[in-house]
Amino acid sequence: MASLPSPNPPWHPDSLANRLPFLRRRGALTAATRAFFGARGFTEVETPALVPVPGMEVHLQAFRSEYIPHLGVGERRTLWLRTSPELALKRLLVAGAGPVFELARVWRNGEASPRHAPEFTMLEWYAPGLPLAGLMDQAEAFVRAVCPPQVSHAGVTTDLTRPFERLSMAEAFDRWCGGLDILATEGDAGALGAAAAAVGTPPRPGEGWEDLFFRLLLERIEPRIGRDRATFLTHWPTPQAALARRDPADPRAALRFELFAGGLELANAFDELTDPVEQRARFVADVAARRALHPGQEGDEVWDVDEDFLAALDHGMPAGSGIALGFDRLAMLASGARSISDVLWLPRF
User: Fold this and answer.
1) Cα 334 to Cα 262: distance, rounded to the nearest angstrom
2) Does the domain made of 13-164+229-343 have the CATH classification 3.30.930.10?
3) pTM here?
4) Given a cut of 90, is residue 152 above it in pLDDT?
5) How far apart (Å, rounded) are the C-alpha atoms in residues 228 and 164?
6) Is the terminal CB of the chain with fewer CB neighbours within 10 Å at N or C?
7) In Å, how far are 63, 65, 95, 292, 302 from 297, measured between CA atoms?
8) What are the residue boundaries of the structural domains of the chain, listed by start?
9) How confident is the model at residue 298, as a pLDDT?
10) What is the CA radius of gyration of the chain?
11) What confidence tens digit (pLDDT) does each residue in 101-150 have?
12) How many CB atoms lie within 10 A of CB 57?
C-alpha cells in the first residue's frame, strides 16, 4: 500500500484521508512498542528536548535556540533542540533508572527526503548488563513483534520470519569490495585508497579515510544487505566507534551495529563506552573535527564537549547496550508507506 502525492496542504481533509491508513497503523505500532517494553520491565521516560549540547556526532546539524530570562531565573544562554536523547538517557542509567526506553521527538537540521524529516521520532532503549549480542536478540524480537511477517519498501521485500543476518563490517568489505581488509587500513587514507583503487573504486581528490569508507559502504555494501532478510552490520572500525567501546578481542573494531530491513537503515546500537577518559578524548576529537568543518562559525554550528555527561560517566555508568531506532522508518515498513511524510500527522516536506 502506498499513498499518492497530494496537491493539497497536509491539513486538507483529502490529504489526511490519504495518510490516515498509515497513521492508524503507526498508532497501533506505538501501542505495541509500549506493550513490548513494558512486558520486559522497561520504564518509559521523557527527557528534555531543549539541551545545552544537542549531540556529539560530527556531521549532524542542529537547530539553535536561546534561553532569555524574564522572571529573574538563570542567565541568557544558547540551547539546542536535541538530535538524540542518548546523552540524557545515559545520565538516567547513571542515576539507576534503567532499563529505560523513550519515544523521543528529535531534530536534525537540513535533513529532508522521502526517508528523512528535520523533526522525527526516535525510539531509544538501554539495558544495563546486556551485551551487544543480547541487544541484537532483543531488537530482532521487537521488530518481529510489532511488524507484519513481511515488510516492503521501494520494491525490496524482507521476510522477517527468517533469522536476522549478523554480518561483521570486515566480512562485508571482504565479500563485496574484492577482499578488501578494512580493519587493516584503519585511519590510513593512503592504504584504503590503494585498496579501493585495486577493486575499481579509486579515491576522489581530497577524499580522506572516512569519506572513502562511507562511499564504499553506501555504494557497494548497503545495497546488498537488509533485503531478503534483515541484517545486523556489526563490529565497525574504531574510527567510527562513536560512543561504543572497543572489541576486547580485536581493538581495531568497535562493538557497534546497524540494523537494515526493507533496504532501509533502521537502527544504530552500541555496547556502551563507560570509560570517561576515553570518551573525553573522543569528544575532544569530535569538537575539533566539527570546527574544521565549520570554520568561523563558533556558537552557530560548533558546541563544546558535554562536561555534564562526562561528569556522569565519571560517577559511574553501568555496563550495557543501547540502541536508537528510527520509529518513522519502522512505521513506513509496518504500514507499507512510500515516504516518511505518509506516517507524519502534519508533514512539513
Assistant:
1) 10
2) yes
3) 0.94
4) yes
5) 10
6) N
7) 14, 15, 35, 10, 7
8) 13-164+229-343
9) 73
10) 21
11) 999 999 999 988 999 999 999 999 999 999 999 999 999 999 999 999 99
12) 17
Q: At what angle do helices 307-316 and 276-293 cross, to 10 degrees?
A: 160
Q: What are phi and psi of 165, to 5 degrees?
A: -70, 140
The pLDDT value given to residue 6:
64
pLDDT band at 5 (very low <50, low <70, confident <90, very high): low
Bridge partners, residue 57, by sequence: none
Closest-CA residue to 124 (of 103, 105, 95, 138): 103
